[in-house]
Each structure stands twice: as C-alpha cells, then as structure tokens.
C-alpha cells in the first residue's frame, strides 16, 4: 500500500499552484526588460530587413549587403573584434592567473577584481577622450616622448584613428572583462589535480599541457568569443574617434539611418543590423556550448 501511495502522482492543489505563480512574479521585470529592449527591437530589425520601400516583402535590402563597401565594413569589424579579443584574452588570462596566486579574499584580489568590474564598462566618449588626452596628437605622453626622446608616435601616420589604434583602445576594456569571466574557471582548478600530477612524477609543463590546459581550453575559448561579441557590438568609442568615413558596421548603420546618400534604401540599416545579429547569435551559441562543457569539468 505504501509503495502504491508513493508511486501515485501527487495532486496539484490550488494553493501549490498559486505558490508557483507567485514565485515567478519577481522575474516579471526581467522578462519585461528583455521583451522591450531585446525581443521587440530584434523583431523590428528582422521585419524591416525584408520590407520593401512600398511596404511589401522585398530582398533588396538583404541583397545590398553584398555591396563592396558593406562587406569591407563587416571585414574590418570582424578583424578588429578578433584582434582585440585575442589580445585581451591572452593578457586578461595572465592577469587572472596572477590573481589566483594572491591571498583569497585579500585586499589585492578584491581591489583588482573591483577595478576590473569598473574598467570593463569604461568605454564610449570618455574612453576616447582619455586616449586622445594621453596618446593623441597633442596628448601629454605624445608631447613628452617628442620633447624628451625625440620619438614621434605618429611618424609613419596617424594610426590612432585607424584599425591599430581602435584595437589598442578596445583592448583597454577587453582585458578587465576577460579577468571577470575567466577568473572563476581558474578558481575551479583543484589543488588535488596538481598534487596528483606531481605524485605521479609529472612536471609543471605536463600539468599545464595535459591537465589544466585541456580543462581550461573551453573556458578560454568561450571567454574569447564573449570578448569578440563585446567588441563587435561596440559603437560609441569608434563613433567618438572616427569622424570621417564609416569603416565599421555600427558606423555604417549610423550612416544609413542619418545620411541622405542612401535615400530610397531606408531599410538598409536594418539589413546590416540583421547581419550583426546573425554574427553575434552564432558567436553566443558557440559560447553557450563551450560554457556547458566548462561547467561539466570545473563545476
């Protein structure tokens, strides 16, 4: 009788059902925020990308993505995102590893992680001005190097406003972001694994190449993809620095929305935005798969 009672399906009372609905109420603001600022804008972009000038369905805007200028903008955006993500991932991982050697909960670790949390969000016009004031044409470092050592930062051209300069500036907020997202994976490495390697006669090189490295590889690649998506969608910093031309996709979208040059192609900006959504969706899908693999080993 007792087994039969245990195997019987439990009846859902109105009170338990009401409790379940009530527990979901705190999540309503989150879902409302996601709906208003993510789902609806994405839907508008998708519909607009396939809408013609007469309001009907058209592929003209999507076909216009094959324009050489737009393809170049996508290529430069991907190159900029990849370079800044790779540099930020390597330097950020080294800094995160250095933090794991510090005292857990100590002042150094708490200070660096707090600073990383702030600097990862430091971008836009403020960051552009900081670099202009530091290594701009009249920045104090530029002037000091010229007056003290006779070294001209821009002897071979003003690279600060081009791809190398943007890569340097983007790396500024990519490194602290890497520290934030990669540090938990490093903390997940158990000291027993290293002790077991040493007890078996393994060297430090063998530990990192055969134990820690393979375990951390999915987390490192996933974090790098997150940095790529972060740089690919950045707009304000490049917009503040680049005043002529639109070398990146976000700046091309701004030009499509504000310029009269593309009159009659009012949905071209939405088509380019759809292209960005597709790229970011692919990257974030890979990131989610790698995160699942990371959580499997590192808990």
From TrEMBL:
- UniProt-annotated location(s): Cell membrane
**All residue ranges annotated as the ABC transmembrane type-1 domain in the record:** 74-289
In its UniProt entry, what is this protein called? Putative spermidine/putrescine transport system permease protein
Gene Ontology CC terms? plasma membrane
Q: Where are the transmembrane segments?
A: 24-51, 78-100, 112-145, 165-186, 215-242, 271-290
For this UniProt entry, what is the primary localization, expressed as one broad class? membrane
The record's Gene Ontology biological-process terms are: transmembrane transport
List the membrane topology term(s). Answer: Multi-pass membrane protein
In the record, the note on similarity to other proteins reads: Belongs to the binding-protein-dependent transport system permease family. CysTW subfamily.
Q: Which organism is it from?
A: Paractinoplanes brasiliensis
Q: Which UniProt keywords apply?
A: Cell membrane, Membrane, Transmembrane, Transmembrane helix, Transport
């Amino acid at each position: 009788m007792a087994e039969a009672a245990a195997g019987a399906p439990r009846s859902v009372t109105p009170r338990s059902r009401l409790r379940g609905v009530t527990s979901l109420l705190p999540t309503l603001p989150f879902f409302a925020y996601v709906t208003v600022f993510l789902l609806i804008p994405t839907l508008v972009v998708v519909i607009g990308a396939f809408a013609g000038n007469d309001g009907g369905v058209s592929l003209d805007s999507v076909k216009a993505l094959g324009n050489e200028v737009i393809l170049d903008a996508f290529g430069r955006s991907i190159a900029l995102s990849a370079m800044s993500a790779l540099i930020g991932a390597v330097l950020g991982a080294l800094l995160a590893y250095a933090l794991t050697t510090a005292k857990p909960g100590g002042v150094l670790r708490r200070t660096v992680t707090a600073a990383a949390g702030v600097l990862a969000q430091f971008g836009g016009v403020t960051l552009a001005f900081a670099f202009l004031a530091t290594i701009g044409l009249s920045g104090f470092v530029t002037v000091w190097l010229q007056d003290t050592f006779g070294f001209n930062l821009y002897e071979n051209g003003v690279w600060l406003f081009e791809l190398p300069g943007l890569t340097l500036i983007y790396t500024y907020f990519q490194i602290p972001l890497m520290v934030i997202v990669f540090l938990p994976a490093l903390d997940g490495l158990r000291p027993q694994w290293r002790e077991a390697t040493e007890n078996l006669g393994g060297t430090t090189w063998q530990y990192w190449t055969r134990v820690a490295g393979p375990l951390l590889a999915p987390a490192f690649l996933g974090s790098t993809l997150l940095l790529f998506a972060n740089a690919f969608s950045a707009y304000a910093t490049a917009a503040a620095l680049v005043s002529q031309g639109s070398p990146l996709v976000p700046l091309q979208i701004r030009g499509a929305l504000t310029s009269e040059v593309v009159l009659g192609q009012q949905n071209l900006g939405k088509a380019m935005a759809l292209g960005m959504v597709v790229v970011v969706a692919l990257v974030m899908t890979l990131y989610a798969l790698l995160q699942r693999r990371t959580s499997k080993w590192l808990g």
